[in-house]
Amino acid sequence: MATQRYTTSSGIPLSSHYGPGDVPEGHWPKVKAPPGKSPYTRGAYPEMYRSRPWRIFQLSGYGNPEDERERIRFLLEHGETGFLMEHDRMTADHLYDVDHPEVVARREDVGLTGAVILSVDDFETVLDGIDIAATYAHAGGAVVQHAPFANACYWTVARRRGIDLRRLAGTGQSDFNLTYLGCINKVQVPPRDGLRFNLDLIEHCTLNVPRWVPVSIAAYNAADTGLNAFEELGALMANAAEYLDGIKQRSRLAVADVAHGVGGVNLRTSMDFFEDIAKLRAARSMWDRLLRERYGVTDERACRLRIHVVTAGSAMTYTQPLNNIARGTLMGLAAVLGGAQSLGVSGYDEAITIPSEHAHQMSVRIQQILAHEANLTAVADPLGGSWLVESLTAQIEERAWEFFEMIQGEGGYIATLESGWLHQRAAAGAALAMDQVEKGDRVLVGVNAYQDDVSPFEVEGFEGTTDAWDRAMARLATLRRERHSSAAAEALRALEEACRSDVNIMGPMLDAVKARVTIGEIGEVYRTVFGNWDVPIVF
Amino acid sequence: MSDEPARILMAKTSLDGHWRGITIVERALREAHFEVITLGMATPDEIVRAAVDEQVDIVGLNLGGRSAVVERIVAQLRSQGCDAAVMVGGVITPKTKKALESAGIAVFPPGSSLEDIVATARRLCEQEI
What we know:
The structure holds two protein chains of two kinds.
Chain A: H1 28-32, E1 55-56, E2 59-60, H2 65-77, E3 82-85, H3 89-94, H4 101-104, H5 120-127, E4 136-138, H6 147-160, E5 170-171, H7 176-182, H8 191-208, E6 212-213, H9 219-225, H10 229-250, H11 255-262, E7 264-269, H12 273-295, H13 300-303, E8 306-311, H14 323-337, E9 342-344, H15 357-372, H16 387-409, H17 413-419, H18 421-438, H19 468-482, H20 485-500, H21 506-514, H22 519-530
Parallel strand pairs in A: 1-9, 2-3, 3-4, 4-5, 5-6, 7-8, 8-9
Helix pairs in contact in A: 2-5, 5-6, 6-21, 7-9, 8-10, 8-11, 9-10, 9-18, 10-11, 10-12, 10-16, 12-14, 12-16, 14-15, 20-21, 20-22
Chain B: E1 7-12, H1 20-31, E2 35-41, H2 44-53, E3 58-62, H3 68-79, E4 85-89, H4 94-102, E5 106-108, H5 114-128
Parallel strand pairs in B: 1-2, 1-3, 3-4, 4-5
């Protein structure tokens, strides 16, 4: 047997103990700056959880719009403090109506990964009885080509309720890592056109929906695709630089005006406790430096990175699923100690199915136990000054900037998606992680070790509903029959024209949503104008 | 048995873009000297046509969660006289796993070892001869 090497999951060597000499000289000023002060290594806000509890924010939704509404209400009743709308991946991510041949061919799977939401009418159904003026939401649109439509639908519902959009808070995510790195669709607009969508969203929100996070970079998705901790952060900053450079080039708005909107991001905690904590701390100081050095922005609101953490879905095991409650707790704890503003804990049934009601309740309860029982929230950055954590924070930041420079050397973040360079890095990371498990170098309890199971609890797996496709077909037929068809056609023509010009698409998109266009009709416009991305890798 | 490498068709039955599992399995199969034909996201018709045209020994499917699409693919394969073995992986409930296994399909949920997957693929190829 080889001698054991002690490293973090991203390969940073670990000593048996740490002392002051392990923290680089240049890092000490960051330790000495209090939470809430530049470079924010120690926290985004001075008092952290005393004044701003983290948001309990769980992915949720499946089946019909009514099923999604009931699950969201259930979570809010159990103490969730924001909500996320999951959309069916087939229809939403691909912008297909339910009668598209690609969907019909797999109709039984429709609604399994989120609700089928075809138009603004379905948004009305999901949001019925939910106080969206008072609750932060993720409206869907995690995938870039879905975001303009999803956001426009949500805002339209808000406006119909008389809510001032200048006060409406939430996000649509619109994440490049999900769209072009981790979860690549069969048909989707190319990355450069996706960038244009995101810049349109950033401009539109800055001017009209200023509390909305127009794009939320989910480095989580890069990490769960295989990038390690410092690659995750390097890619995050390179991704942000594409957006901010783009805004600068358009020269309609200043970087300082949009930076706050871009600075709400999503990171992953996995099962490397101290590295995860250090990563969150490093992310904040990197953001502060990116804004100051690359863009000359010093405004506090702009330089303060807010982090939503989702615990790694890939860390949850199929076997002995109740063990995942312990894993969710540990990963959630790392998020809290790292100073997250918002947290989603993966369900204990993550590897089996979408969460059952009980698994969802457990995710919320884990967060409540962390928030209320363990006296974790009185002191900001409780691990600040730990020689180990400071050493890791400094090393991750240093390596992440190196990775950032490598990406710039490859032509920038989007160029690395177009060439497949970033995909190769992620694939190598995923393969390495798998090899470590296969060889037993990394112990996974219940998977490659301690496989005996005497649990009397059977986790059967939540099945969702089986009528989502049929009912969506019926809704689609009614919608097409009832709506003003020439108004819908005219709105789609105007949207197509906007897509072909450099007009911001959000105005025509809002008009199209009001005219009750369907998700598939939006998709047809995009497919006509932008074509499909020629993916640089073979699956 | 011929010296030709065994041929395995790999496809995703759903339009859900989680690729990490299937790409890792494809890599392991290539390293084990299988000839791997990748189809990406494909409809049942496309999968069946490719399996027949390419005369594969095994059809490997990453499923979207429910068994119905897989059952449809298997029925179509058999009705077209294709006797390729079928292997399935992905996020799948224990109930669905049991149903597919009782239909003679090898099922590999998350956490399955690559060694097991490769060994099963080898065994299924030998059985076919």
